[in-house]
Write a structure and sequence with these properties.
Elements (H helix, E strand, L loop, with lengths): L5 H10 L18 E2 L2 E4 L2 E4 L4 E11 L4 E9 L3 H15 L5 H4 L2 H16 L2 H12 L3 H29 L3 E3 L2 E9 L2 E5 L7 H12 L3 E5 L12 H7 L5 E3 L4 H11 L4 E5 L2 H10 L7 E5 L4 E5 L5 H13 L9 E7 L3 H13 L21 H14 L3 E2 L15 E4 L6 H4 L6 E7 L3 H9 L2 E2 L2 E4 L3 H11 L6 E3 L15 E2 L2 E2 L4 H7 L1 E9 L2 H12 L13
Parallel strand pairs: 1-5, 8-9, 8-11, 9-10, 11-12, 13-14, 13-19, 14-17, 16-17, 19-20
Antiparallel strand pairs: 2-3, 4-5, 6-7, 7-23, 12-22, 15-16, 18-21
The structure holds glyceraldehyde-3-phosphate.
Length: about 550
């Protein structure tokens, strides 16, 4: 996003969309950009003296001459430095003999606890940067931070639980065995821009706590907000256990993948990028992939749905954080008998949404951080209306620059892009159906298979839909919007939507493998085992119980 010219600036000022630079709240990153030079490799926070990438906010500051949104910069590391990070992570893992993978679960938990304490002290700094970098409202930014802290604490409890189960031996057919979960190696963690903290940490922390070592690359938008946590990472873990890389994917990620030394790819983003990354690995079968990808979750409104509830859930389901959630409701199927009622009331509710800057009180619609996003959304709306769909509101009146007021498009049909493409933004396509086979066919033929929502009261209709949908998607929500939480529940998808399952307890499983020690039940073996246990000679073979 470049600095806007004088004429554009004039329009911005007269339209009163963005405040003057001086009137932006503190910390005012436009007045005082955050220049990140640090990166963490092998336990040392190093300083970069190469090229930098500028960071632009979705929020502009305006004055007489210009509109500015540059808020900082971060290192554009080289492939060489990325390989140094890989080397550090490999050394720290040391084929499973490193201090971290060989450490007891209890001690690893202690390190994570130390990290959480330090992380909590950075809450306000991270929240500020979430608002400035990705335009997320204060309320949602705080929620993202707090949810992440809760997730880490819940992960610690889940690991304790898992370890307690593994602290016992089994005896079967004359074989004594102890089964535990062991780490996998070097994990590359890459999160998405919409939940740059939460979604990244829901893979990064479980990967760490299970004894893996990590290279972490923040998403393209949402980099600076990780800076306040660098010290906490450096101080809480042994050298090389966590390393950060920043920069262009082709420059820093390709060499990592091509080395063949990435054991696990934890990536949340597009299936297109995931495919490129996987293909770069010389032995893709050796690399485990945990992927969170696209989705186009439908809501199906049955004729007897409680309209107030359905509208309320569909508005928040489609438009929380401007619809930039993988779990957002991205297409609404409404039965023709209630279509006009639903569409009219839905439109009224959307019109009431409060537009503003991320720090404004009770704001619901905020500016979009992706460059070119508003043009892309316009093109989806235009494609649909040119093919006969109806635009229900004059969204352009309230949209400008990075602001895009939600556009409601009714009468959407299968020949329109909005029917298939994941808009990932504030455009809501509505489809009229008369036969339930229509939305079901949509789900069957879709490239995606994450979640669906059903709104209605008729139990036999709901049950029929549930039984069909559960074999097409991975979560069916009744009379409620689609969502990931609570984090104890499995979060996954079919087709192009995901690979692997995440939840507090599932994440511990996906970043580890079951491994066991077995011995025949002879007197000699029993003596060996008793001695190892009594003298605490092994970390793996142990009956210690974590309280
Ligand atoms: O973008 C995808 C997120 O995992 C969605 O999480 O449903 O809690 O907003 P959420």
């Amino acid at each position: 996003m470049p600095i806007l010219d004088r004429e554009t600036t004039y329009i911005m000022r007269t339209k009163n969309i963005f405040p003057s630079i001086e009137h932006l709240p503190e910390p005012n990153f436009i007045k005082k950009p955050l220049r990140q030079v640090e990166f963490l490799i092998n336990g040392i926070i190093e300083k970069w003296n190469g090229p930098f990438e500028k960071v632009y906010s979705p929020v502009y500051g305006v004055d007489e001459e210009k509109a500015v949104n540059e808020i900082g910069s971060y290192p554009l590391l080289s492939g060489c430095v990325a390989l140094k990070a890989l080397d550090a992570a490999r050394k720290a893992y040391d084929s499973g003999r490193g201090e971290w993978p060989a450490m007891s679960v209890e001690s690893r938990i202690e390190h994570i606890r130390r990290f959480v304490i330090k992380m909590k002290s950075k809450r306000e700094e991270v929240v500020q940067l979430l608002m400035w970098e990705i335009g997320k409202s204060r309320k949602d930014s705080e929620k993202e931070f707090d949810r992440t802290v809760d997730y880490i604490n819940d992960t610690i409890e889940a690991l304790k639980q898992l370890d307690r189960i593994s602290s016992r031996f089994t005896i079967s057919q004359g074989i004594i065995a102890q089964v535990r979960r062991a780490p996998l190696g070097v994990v590359l963690c890459m999160g998405p821009y919409n939940y740059p903290l939460n979604e990244t940490f829901t893979t990064l922390l479980p990967a760490l706590i299970m004894g893996n070592t990590v290279i972490f690359k923040p998403p393209k938008m949402g980099v600076l907000l990780h800076k306040p946590l660098l010290d906490a990472f450096a101080e809480s873990f042994p050298a090389g256990v966590i390393n950060t890389v920043y920069g262009d994917g082709q420059e820093v990620i390709a060499p990592l993948m091509e080395s063949g030394f990435v054991d696990v790819l934890a990536f949340i983003g597009s299936s297109k990028v995931a495919d490129i990354l996987k293909k770069q690995h010389p032995k893709p079968h050796r690399m485990k992939s945990i992927l969170g990808l696209e989705a186009k979750n439908p809501a199906i409104i049955l004729p007897d749905a409680d309209m107030d509830q359905a509208i309320n859930e569909c508005v928040t389901g489609a438009l929380s954080y401007n619809g930039q959630r993988c779990t957002a409701l991205k297409i609404l199927f409404v039965h023709d008998s209630v279509y006009d009622d639903f569409v009219g009331r839905f439109k009224d509710e959307v019109e009431k949404l409060k537009v503003g800057l991320p720090w404004d009180k009770d704001v619901q619609i905020t500016p979009l951080p992706e460059p070119g996003k508003t043009e892309y959304l316009d093109s989806l709306v235009n494609d649909a209306t040119e093919k006969g769909a109806k635009l229900l509101n004059n969204y352009k009146e309230k949209s400008d620059f990075s602001f895009f007021f939600p556009a409601i498009v009714s009468g959407v049909k299968s020949n329109m892009r909005l029917y298939h493409e994941e808009q990932f933004g504030p455009v809501i396509p509505i489809v009229k159906y008369s036969n339930l086979d229509e939305p079901l066919e949509y789900v069957v033929n879709s490239n995606y298979g994450q979640q669906a929502s059903i709104f209605g009261e008729n139990t036999s209709e709901i049950a029929r839909l549930v039984d069909t949908l559960v074999n097409q998607v991975c979560r069916v929500n009744i009379n409620s919007q689609c969502q990931r939480g609570p984090d104890e529940l499995p979060f996954t998808g079919r087709k192009d939507s995901a690979e692997g399952t995440l939840s507090v307890s599932d994440a511990l499983r996906v970043f580890s493998i079951r491994t066991l020690v077995a011995l025949k039940e002879t007197a000699g073996n029993k003596e060996i085992l008793t001695d190892i246990l009594k003298e605490n000679r092994s970390t793996f073979l142990s009956t210690d119980f974590i309280f």
